[in-house]
Specification:
It is a single chain. The protein has 26 helices and 11 strands. With 728 residues, the protein is α+β, with helices and mostly antiparallel strands. It is globular and about 95 Å long.
Length: 728
């Protein structure tokens, strides 16, 4: 039997009812077996002891009798012992939370379920054996490379190229312990494994996209004109060369990116880099495809007069445009789903790599040498791969009348020194901003040995749910010499003081126990009155000292030994250098919300293209659509720049050219403000929570704008003379 006959027979069999029923049952059985096996395995792993609690309890300092007087040295030792125990206990809590999230089976079980549903859809489409063959072909190089690599030993943690060079050098010396033939096989397998992973990734993503697009066409197979038009858009997009190029660019770039990251960089930086470029570049590539498709699908039909055949049927203008938009949005959703699944999968692979660098590197994922957890792993799990809420400390402010009085005083001094200095609202606003910045800078600057208190409020939920917190801090002294360090002390309620040796200009973290949260009386108004029914506030007061308070306590006369415990220079905390955060969920849910917001933005862009193509040729409509996209993406920068774009030169002269630019730029910045304020990728990379309320506001704002553009497009399209106009 010839191979074509074999292919024909296979195609007939995969369309047969008995095959679809049997394959569906087999897929369900495999999915259930994989889910149960993984859940049992993870459950057994989760029940293992995470942190040696007995070793931590051994650090608990003995109780000091209240009637016993301690010398300064004994007091210092007691405080240091208490600090060590509390730090270990807090660290234990964080480690247990991190490992508990690692043992969470929700994401993997959901992935198994989604994969099962997709394969069931593939079987229903009658291409089950075809897709299985494509999958096996894409996985064949990977399986071959892994098989070859099994013939030799590879040292733990060796870089692939380093290991290859070492083995080739040994082979050239004729090392009798390793047969040369095996070395060649190992070297070949080692080189092929990296490319095999890339081939497997490209094959998996391409196959997933094919399945989703086929299911999308199946979902749009209804008897209505709306769905028929949308399905036709999907079919057209698959045949376009531009679409194929952009899709392959997206899939190939997403698969190659993890292999291009620096393996020697801290793991948290690698994960953040991948999330930034993986998610950001994905959006831009899909946005370019959406803009092109949305313009082309309307403009080309007018240019080629295909629209005459469509509009002579009982198809209303609103159905035609809505169908075009629905098809483009469906394609964008499919691409975003596949790309998002790839980002999650590759992020999971990066997450299970070794954290830390140099001697501080983990000996195995989540297993640190000589301590409970690696610092790099701690930051990754609590600050990056999390959905956390962050807050800044409350800084002192002046009352409104005091600020107005000070601004008036500064304006008088400015006009006294320069009579031509204009008394304008812009200059007064700039003076007020400078005044507030000066007050904040003074408060965040600590003289040598100075102690200052910072208050974080609004922690009622954290206190009720007994959540762990993380303090991120950064200090600067002078030009931040990378070789210099500073001793910084932290004091919190129900915790021993901590003294940190801090490198300058670098962000560090301190885990904080919820036991340090204190209760404060409810806030009073300006007249000192407290509202009836006001409750106590949960706050975290932190005292920060520019020096070593342990050394200050141990010195009999601290004033005579100031150089021993004080830092010699003024220490400044940058505006973003003090932040308290706590996790309210994992990054997976945050990632889902980010993808939803990006899809809404793509839906808006699709309507921009469709609306533009209703009355413009392809070239002009594409220019308008891409220009709107770039303006909307840069509207935030434009708004900030306009604040400093003053038409007054300070001498009473007005630059009318700048006035004209501002007149044009202000409405553009205002129109794109809601779009520009949506920066979901930044939330994802920084581990900040993107709440459902933000998603809802984005849906309302973008939905209203999209609906407005749709109404304009329908109004224009209904009044077009399509019988005489063909876009030429």
């Amino acid at each position: 039997m010839k191979w074509r006959e074999w292919l024909g027979r296979i195609d007939r069999e995969q369309h047969a009812l008995w095959f679809k029923v049997g394959a569906s049952c087999g897929i369900a059985a495999i999915a259930i077996w994989c889910g149960l096996t993984y859940a049992i395995w993870q459950g057994a792993d989760a029940n293992k002891p995470m942190v040696d609690h007995a070793a931590i309890e051994a650090l608990r300092p003995p109780e000091t009798p209240k009637d016993k007087a301690l010398t300064p040295a004994e007091q210092q030792e007691a405080e240091a012992a208490k600090a060590r125990y509390e730090a270990a206990a807090t660290n234990e809590r964080l480690v247990n939370e991190i490992l508990a999230r690692k043992a969470d089976t929700t994401v993997v079980l959901a992935g198994i379920g989604v994969a099962g549903v997709l394969w069931r859809g593939v079987v229903g489409l009658g291409v089950g054996l075809t897709c299985l063959g494509v999958m096996l072909v894409s996985l064949a190089p990977l399986m071959a490379a892994l098989t070859v690599r099994m013939f030799g030993y590879y040292g733990a943690g060796d870089d692939e190229m380093v290991g290859l060079a070492r083995r080739l050098a040994s082979m050239s010396r004729g090392d009798p312990e390793h047969p040369s033939a095996l070395w060649v096989m190992q070297a070949a397998g080692q080189l092929a494994a990296g490319w095999a992973w890339i081939v497997a990734g490209i094959g998996a993503l391409t196959l997933s996209l094919f399945i989703l697009l086929e299911l999308l066409k199946l979902a749009l197979s209804g008897p209505w004109a709306l769905t028929a038009i949308a399905k036709n858009v999907v079919s057209e997009a698959i045949r376009m060369r531009v679409s194929i190029v952009l899709i392959m660019l997206l899939i190939g770039g997403l698969t190659l990116l993890p292999r291009l990251l620096d393996a020697e960089a801290p793991l948290r930086y690698r994960v953040q880099t991948f999330l930034q470029y993986g998610t950001g570049a994905t959006f831009w590539v899909i946005a370019a495809l959406v803009l092109f498709l949305s313009v082309a699908t309307v403009a080309f039909e007018q240019r080629d007069k295909i629209i005459w055949q469509t509009m002579t049927k009982p198809v209303a203008a609103w159905e035609y445009l809505l169908g075009k938009w629905l098809g483009v949005v469906g394609i964008a959703g499919g691409l975003l789903t596949v790309a998002g699944a790839g980002v999650v999968a590759f992020t999971g692979d990066l997450r299970n790599q070794l954290a830390g660098t140099g001697t501080d590197r983990e000996i195995a994922p989540y297993v640190a040498a000589g301590k409970a957890i690696n610092e790099d792993r701690l930051v990754l799990e609590t600050q990056v791969l999390a959905a956390r809420i962050s807050m800044r400390p409350e800084l002192p402010t002046w009352k409104a009348e005091e600020e107005a009085k000070e601004v008036e005083s500064r304006m008088k001094r400015a006009r006294a020194s320069d009579p031509l200095f204009p008394d304008t609202d812009e200059n007064r606003a700039r003076m007020l901003a400078d005044l507030r910045e000066e007050l904040r800078t003074r408060y965040l600057s600590l003289q040598p040995g100075e102690t200052r208190g910072f208050l974080f409020s609004g922690l009622e939920e954290v206190r009720q749910q007994n959540r762990s917190m993380t303090l991120r801090y950064k200090v600067s002294i002078g030009a931040d010499d990378p070789r210099a360090t500073a001793r910084v002390s932290f004091q919190m309620p129900n915790a021993a003081p901590r003294v940190q040796e801090v490198p300058l200009g670098q962000t560090l973290t301190i885990p904080i126990s919820p036991a340090s949260i204190d209760l404060a009386p409810p806030a009073a108004d300006e007249e000192g009155r407290i509202a009836p029914g006001a409750r106590e506030m949960a706050v975290l007061p932190i005292l920060i000292t520019n020096g070593d308070i342990f050394m200050r306590m141990s010195n009999p006369d601290p004033k005579e030994h100031e150089a021993d415990w004080k830092n010699p220079d003024v220490m400044t905390i940058p505006p973003d250098g003090l932040e308290l955060s706590f996790a309210v969920g994992g990054y997976e849910g945050n990632f889902l919300r980010v993808m939803l917001v990006l899809w809404m933005k793509l839906a808006f862009l699709a309507m921009v293209g469709v609306c533009s193509a209703t009355f413009l040729s392809f070239a002009v409509a594409a220019l308008i659509a891409f220009g709107t996209f770039l303006i909307a993406e840069s509207a935030g920068f434009l708004s900030t720049s306009l604040e400093y774009f003053n038409a007054d030169d300070g001498k009473g002269n007005v630059n009318y050219f700048i006035v004209a630019i501002r007149t044009i730029a202000l409405p553009i910045a205002w129109a794109g403000k809601h779009y520009a304020d949506l920066r979901p990728t930044a939330n994802l990379v920084d581990g900040q929570l993107l709440g459902w309320s933000t998603v809802g506001l984005a849906a309302v704002a973008l939905g209203m704008i999209t609906a407005g553009l749709y109404g304009i497009g329908v109004l224009i399209f209904r009044h077009r003379e399509l019988a005489t106009y063909s876009g030429q």
